[in-house]
Automatic annotation (TrEMBL):
SUPFAM superfamilies recorded: CYTH-like phosphatases
Alphabetized Gene3D superfamilies for the sequence: Hypothetical Protein Pfu-838710-001
Record protein name field: CYTH domain-containing protein
Species: Candidatus Kaiserbacteria bacterium CG10_big_fil_rev_8_21_14_0_10_47_16
Domain CYTH, first and last residues per copy: 75-282
Length: 296
């Protein structure tokens, strides 16, 4: 089996504005947007007058960097799912990605608990959780609440980190399974139970709870998540982000090309909806287990 590369961190900039201006040599920055649904590495070559190094110095920029240059932009997520089912199919996909893209790399692995909510008022929710957010996070969430039509509210524990997630549909799909969505996903200083309690206080109810193990890869400019989900089995998610709404169709077509070359089929929305409905009605049977089901 081909083995994908793993990146080694040389240095992390955690105080981006202050540390960045102190760097005098030409620097190659790799900006890591630490997001479970969007993980990519972007190269920047920063020139200076007193260049004195024969080779660029590689730095991994902390995820907070993203807030300095695009905090006021809406992030649109384009995501296509493909049901793999059995482990052998997940292994074959990883081998194929490494074969077709020598730069393919496993960039993260984690275990997750995901709680989905429904029936509440997102405007009331915004008021309830805003004390957990900084000013830039508030503005980003407010924009999504104002522009979205249907919403998916979630909480996530990713290893030891707790995340608050709101997704809003931007296409004919819904906010849970749609292809194009606006997304808010930010860490909060609260436990998973504490965050859940705030959401439940605003009239939301649990739709379902999920558990999964995730491997994240970079592949030809896309983020590919290979998940082992309770209920669904193995599932691949191909994801890209854009700040431009008029680029959604272009990015969507680019993603379809990736699936085609890997011999994968998109999980049809109607089948995914049936699978989700079954899981939603029976999630206590699957949550935290390795049990799976198959629904056509």
């Amino acid at each position: 089996m081909s083995k994908c590369k793993r990146f080694e961190t040389l240095h992390i900039l955690r105080n981006m504005p202050q540390e960045f201006v102190s760097v005098s040599n030409s620097v190659l920055l790799l900006a890591h947007c630490n997001n479970d649904t969007y993980l990519c590495f972007i190269g920047f070559l920063i020139h200076s007058a007193d260049y004195a190094m024969k080779e660029p110095y590689c730095l991994l920029v902390d995820s907070s960097f993203g807030r300095y240059n695009n905090a006021h932009m809406a992030h649109y997520e384009i995501e296509i799912k493909s049901l793999l089912g059995e482990e052998k199919n997940a292994i074959a996909l990883k081998e194929k990605m490494c074969e077709l893209d020598p730069a393919c790399a496993c960039v993260a692995t984690n275990k997750q608990l995901n709680h989905y909510f429904g029936e509440g008022d997102v405007n009331e929710l915004y008021t309830k959780v805003e004390h957990l957010l900084d000013s830039e996070q508030k503005e980003k969430l407010k924009h999504i609440v104002e522009k979205g039509s249907t919403f998916s509210v979630r909480t996530r524990q990713k290893d030891d980190k707790v995340l608050f997630v709101v997704k809003a549909a931007m296409d004919e799909g819904n906010a849970i399974n749609g292809v194009s969505r606006m997304e808010f996903e930010e860490p909060v200083n609260a436990s998973l139970d504490e965050l859940d309690a705030l959401i439940l206080e605003t009239g939301f109810v649990y739709d379902s709870k999920w558990s999964r193990e995730r491997e994240e890869y970079t592949y030809k400019g896309a983020n590919v998540c290979i998940d082992r989900n309770a209920g669904y089995g193995y599932l691949a998610e191909f994801e890209k982000m854009t700040d431009e709404q008029d680029q959604l169709d272009v990015v969507r077509n680019e993603m379809q090309v990736l699936l085609d070359e890997l011999g994968l089929e998109e999980l049809p929305h109607d089948r995914h909806d049936r699978m989700y409905a079954h899981y939603k009605a029976n999630w206590p049977e699957y949550y935290g287990t390795e049990k799976t089901f198959n629904i056509e």
